[in-house]
Amino acid sequence: MLSIDLDVTRSVRACMASCLGDATATFDRAALERVHARLREAVWYSPKDRRALRAICDEHPQRFTRWLYECERDGRYTGLVMVWPAGHATPIHDHAGLWGIEMVLQGALSVEDYELGHDGALRHVATTVLEEGQSCAFLGTQGHAHRCTNLSARRAAVTLHVYGGLLDGYRNFDVGRGGRYVPVPTRAHVDGRIGAMRAS
């Protein structure tokens, strides 16, 4: 565990406690948009946070790393900070049916969205560029997948993620015979924890 407590993760915890406290049983598009809007207003990425996460970037300059900062007691959400080395791209992957919000704290990401058809084919839907302070949200339906790429060839990017449950496994989509994508069950690796895990 890294003995740092970030201003940005504290602000996310406080916001999520408020959002989920008045959430309805069903988490639909409107509920996701409300949480996304409130997080955009609440998140504060301070100079102290930037210095602390710079140390992680410097320690693992060539490796994509995932750091858990919250695993809410009732399993309603999980929070991660991810550090992206220069030029790193994920495989196309889903989110095990969970909704998610992803925010860029440093750098810029390209997010390519895909739709998985009933025949198993992946269709590219859109590409969005997220710059520092910008974010995206998705409901995590079974047909949703995406790939993210750090757009800088020289500098690390840092992102903050909130997922609607415990994301301990998901599917990567690898290219198989005939150019068709094959789903590969993948365990969600966590490199460590930031701060103390609290019961919300």
TrEMBL record:
Per UniProt, the keywords (alphabetical) are:
Dioxygenase, Iron, Metal-binding, Oxidoreductase
CDD domains for the chain: cupin_CDO
State the Gene Ontology terms under molecular function: ferrous iron binding; oxidoreductase activity, acting on single donors with incorporation of molecular oxygen, incorporation of two atoms of oxygen
Does the entry feature the keyword Metal-binding, yes or no?
yes
Which Gene3D superfamilies would you find in this protein's record? Answer: Jelly Rolls
Checking InterPro entries in the record gives: CDO_1, RmlC-like_jellyroll, RmlC_Cupin_sf
Residue sites binding Fe cation per the record: H93, H95, H146
Q: Which SUPFAM superfamilies match?
A: RmlC-like cupins
Tell me the Pfam families matching this sequence: CDO_I
Instruction: Kindly give the PANTHER family that the UniProt entry links to this protein.
Output: CYSTEINE DIOXYGENASE, CYSTEINE DIOXYGENASE TYPE 1
Return the similarity comment.
Belongs to the cysteine dioxygenase family.
Q: Give the protein's recorded name.
A: Cysteine dioxygenase type I
Source organism phylogeny: Bacteria, Pseudomonadati, Pseudomonadota, Gammaproteobacteria, Lysobacterales
